[in-house]
């Protein structure tokens, strides 16, 4: 049975990815700061095939402790796919001249530093899969904001741009045994995939849907399917896949 590890697994894209792969017969490991969200997943998934750990993946000691538990749970088994999904969802930080270093560092650590720390600990487990001829892959969740910006999103954009650069550097170094790609989500509606206390079902305007060439706003399952594709795409590494309904290639003018 193949095994997936997802950071930021409690809500949104991470939660949908975890559930998608578990539904496909995988064992899953989820890391998240939100233990209430993880507890809902613990109630929904059997202990034999799901390990949910409360962990601040931007902190070195916390990641080391989590991987001790992961190592015990896996035993001699391999990790096949890592999804570095954690991050601060809200991209807006206010005027640059008012942005405190501590807040800036929060965005960087939650996404970029976390991807480094978790990947560093996961690589030996991923190599086990490669040694047996199985596919071993990492999907780093970036953002379309790595290549295009809205006002006052400096730290978020920098973190995701760093994820893009980390991706191709890792792909070159870790190949051929471990393939590494990035996924750049566009507008993904995560409301239905939040923990129950914060779950929402927004009714989007027609104009919101129409600005996407595919005619709808994205769903977290779209990202889960992209992770699945990249894990099986044996000749794809070091790439940055926009999953945005075509929004970033459509010119939009104000009228």
TrEMBL record:
<dbReference type="InterPro" id="IPR002347">
    <property type="entry name" value="SDR_fam"/>
</dbReference>
<dbReference type="GO" id="GO:0016491">
    <property type="term" value="F:oxidoreductase activity"/>
</dbReference>
<protein>
    <submittedName>
        <fullName>SDR family oxidoreductase</fullName>
    </submittedName>
</protein>
<dbReference type="InterPro" id="IPR020904">
    <property type="entry name" value="Sc_DH/Rdtase_CS"/>
</dbReference>
<dbReference type="Pfam" id="PF13561">
    <property type="entry name" value="adh_short_C2"/>
</dbReference>
<dbReference type="InterPro" id="IPR036291">
    <property type="entry name" value="NAD(P)-bd_dom_sf"/>
</dbReference>
<comment type="similarity">
    <text>Belongs to the short-chain dehydrogenases/reductases (SDR) family.</text>
</comment>
<keyword id="KW-0560">Oxidoreductase</keyword>
């Amino acid at each position: 049975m193949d095994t997936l590890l997802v950071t930021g697994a409690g809500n949104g894209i991470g939660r949908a990815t975890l559930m998608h792969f578990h539904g496909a017969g995988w064992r899953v490991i989820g890391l998240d700061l939100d233990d209430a969200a993880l507890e809902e997943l613990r109630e929904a998934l059997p202990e034999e095939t799901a390990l949910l750990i409360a962990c601040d993946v931007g902190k070195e000691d916390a990641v080391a402790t989590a991987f001790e538990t992961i190592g015990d749970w896996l035993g001699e088994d391999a990790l096949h796919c890592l999804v570095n999904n954690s991050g601060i969802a809200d991209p807006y930080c206010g005027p640059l001249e008012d942005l405190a270093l501590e807040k800036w560092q929060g965005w960087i650590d939650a996404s970029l530093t976390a991807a480094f720390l978790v990947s560093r600990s996961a690589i030996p487990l991923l190599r086990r899969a490669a040694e047996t001829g199985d596919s071993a892959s990492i999907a780093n969740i970036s953002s379309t904001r790595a290549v295009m910006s809205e006002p006052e999103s400096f730290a978020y954009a920098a973190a995701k741009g760093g994820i893009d650069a980390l991706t191709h550097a890792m792909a070159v170094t870790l190949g051929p045994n471990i393939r590494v790609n990035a996924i750049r989500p566009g507008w993904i509606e995560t409301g239905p995939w939040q923990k129950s206390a914060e779950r929402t079902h927004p009714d989007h305007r027609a104009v919101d849907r129409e600005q996407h060439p595919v005619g709808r706003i994205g769903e977290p399952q779209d990202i889960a399917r992209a992770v699945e594709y990249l894990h099986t795409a044996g000749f794809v590494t070091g790439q940055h896949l926009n999953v945005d309904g075509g929004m970033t290639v459509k010119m939009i003018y104000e009228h």
